[in-house]
């Protein structure tokens, strides 16, 4: 979902680990204070044992171009959600990662939460748990409620929107709205066992924000700790160059989440590096065929290492993520190789051999 450097190198993680040993007294006190609000090792281990091997997709229904079209009342499509999650169930998926957006809540708070509950009921009927994503630094910087734009032919995620995006830097009062939003959502669903994980912030620092995202990243963890849901909270590391953000994310997440769209060798390096935290791990984004991040060569590694495996994309749809990030096809014709997605709109697999491999790894688990 991005065009940047992914978490590849053990050096970054080792550097974070070494840094923690050299903290000043004040820094140690800060870490100690945070440790009282995040999960204990025992809680994390119990969660990992209870949830076994999570495997699934980043999911928005094929009829939605972005998070607002997914969640607004006039476009919430329970029929498509039910059908497509049925296809996921059929290949042994047990977890979906689903993005929210504060504007859909702001327009209709109770309706938004009712639609979240509706989604969870549908997913649960298919044996699927949910990772909800709260904030996101990727793709279009502005947005508005109402009818969403049509897809641009052949352009990856042409209508996806950040949350809160540029408005966070231009509206000094938005932070108050976001605090109410986060606490409302977390409080409403804090004990819902259909939710397996809260992903508080997708790719903080993306879109050139860098350390500008630190303020909101810290706030969303603070708000989460005030509610302290029964589910773990995390924010996944994804870019080795964002050392300050990575340090904060890794120190303060209840369980470790990360993104990696590279091939087997660098992906294994990332896993080995993150093992040093001795926490359950979930790869919340992988699988980009052009990049040699495939079901055939990555999903078996994730299963062997007992790392959750959440690939990007389930069904080809309005998000256009079968097209690569940086390779638009102006006439909207079929790309020679799909970048993401497992199924065509009619439910037939893009590659039958991939579906067969997935089922061999998942069914009977």
Automatic annotation (TrEMBL):
The record, for PROSITE patterns, names: PROKAR_LIPOPROTEIN
Q: Which domain of life is it from?
A: Bacteria
Name of the featured protein: 1,4-beta-xylanase
